[in-house]
Each structure stands twice: as C-alpha cells, then as structure tokens.
Amino acid sequence: MANLNDICLSIVENTEHALAAGVVDLESGLLLGVSHSVNYFNQEILDTVAAASVEMFRGRSTQTVENMLADLRGTEPGNSIQDLHFSTGQTHHFMTVVPGKPSALAVLVTRNKVRLGFGWTSLQNRLEEIAGACP
C-alpha cells in the first residue's frame, strides 16, 4: 500500500498543471502527506497553508456560522462543510474531506489553466486510496 506522500506525488505527477497535493489532519492541522513541484514551497509555507485549510473547515468563525444555522434549522450542529474550492489570480485550490475519515482533508492546488471539473475529478478519483492510507 502506498503512503500518503507517494499518493500525493502521484496526484501531482498525473494531474496537468498540478502544483501541490496534500492531506491535512483537521484536528491538529498537521500535514499527513504532501508533494509539490514549486521550488519556493518550504516547510513554513506548507504548514501555514495546512493551518489555513483547517481554519476554513473547522475554524472559530466557521463553527459559529454552522452552530447558528443548526439552531435555525433545529438540527444538531456539525461539521457540514465537506468540499471547498477557491481561486487566486493564478491558482485553483480543491479541498474535500476524505470519505470515512472526517478528520482528513485532501487538497489539490493547480494553475488556473485547469478546468474545474478536471481538478475535482483528479482529486476525487484518489479519495479511496487516500482514505486507505490515512491513520
């Protein structure tokens, strides 16, 4: 069985215009696996991006909104955000909670030349393999 770093490397190598792929622990903010093709991505940048990802999915403001909506709907609060996409001037960021592993977040960063459907498909096709390698 491949480890998470190997899976991330394979995603980067097999996705046109991919810059990085990683798996983040949504509880601790630690990178569980990562691979990238950007020479200036050092550990500090990778750790900061991982922490920002956690903030988007599980941060205080996100939890506040989710709790407010749960109250309005009369449902139990929970981690309802499962997928997220955002773009910068030059990149697309695809993020999804790994099915069966609610504390694992899979992330793919590509140049903005990638069609959104292709980016999602590239990441989603590997989720089962990622889940199998997650602790």
If you compute it from the alpha carbons, what radius of gyration comes out, rounded to the nearest whole angstrom? 15 Å
Q: In terms of structural class, how would the helical and strand content be classed?
A: alpha+beta
Rounded mean pLDDT is 96
Low-confidence stretches: none
Distance between the termini: 13 Å
| Fraction of residues in β-strands | 25-35%
Shape: globular
The number of E-state strands comes to 5
- How do the strands line up in the largest sheet? 2-1-5-4-3
**Secondary-structure element order, N to C:** HEEHHEEEHH
Major pleated sheet: 5 strands, antiparallel
Number of H- or I-type helical stretches: 5
Helix content: 40-55%
Describe the structure.
This protein has 135 residues and is an alpha+beta fold. It is built from five helices and five strands. It has helices spanning 4-14, 43-58, 60-73, 116-124, 127-133, and strands spanning 18-25, 31-36, 83-87, 91-98, 101-111. Strands 2-1-5-4-3 form a five-stranded antiparallel β-sheet, with helices on both faces. Helix 2 packs parallel to helix 3. It is globular.
